[in-house]
Amino acid sequence: MICPCRQRGDTSVVDSRPTEDGTAIRRRRLCVCGKRFTTFERIQFRELTVVKKNGRKSSFDREKLSKSIYVALKKRPIDTETAEKFISKITRSLEELGQSEISSNTIGTMVMEGLKDLDPVAYVRFASVYRNFREEKDFVQFVDKIDVYKKR
Length: 152
What we know:
By secondary structure, the chain is an alpha+beta fold. The protein has 2 domains: 1-43; 46-145, no CATH class. Helices cover 43% and strands 21% of the residues. It is built from 5 helices and 6 strands; from the N terminus they run βββββααβααα. It has helices spanning 62-73, 80-96, 104-118, 120-130, 136-145; strands spanning 11-18, 24-31, 36-42, 49-51, 57-59, 101-103. The strands form 2 sheets. Strands 1-2-3 form a 3-stranded antiparallel β-sheet, with no helix packed on it. A 3-stranded mixed β-sheet has the order 5-4-6. A hairpin with a 5-residue loop joins strand 4 (49-51) and strand 5. Helix 1 (62-73) packs across helix 2 and helix 3 (104-118) packs antiparallel against helix 4. The chain is globular and about 55 Å long. The N and C termini lie far apart (48 Å).
């Protein structure tokens, strides 16, 4: 494994353990430069291809999914472990669809449905980007339609 600081492969594994949900192995690594970092080893059932709205295709990137979810969860009371479980759940659900090509719409809908239960503010944040809100009225119309805020 390449050290993110030195960009060299002189690292060793200090500790390995399964993640809490058992879907990955977390490895703590130590570089000869003294820096420590963590890597994750995950099961990948099949190579997934994302079909974008414009018809372009690209490989599914868990990190891209993760970044978009973390942006929605920024400064929210959701710990990293819960967020990682959520991301793993979405990834597993996509793999369990049994399709090699998945539309970006399917992924966005899955994430939105999951965030709706996990954190209502993150749900609205994600929706604002996913649905491309341009004006304040877009937010108001969206929030008026959802039950999350009417229950409170």
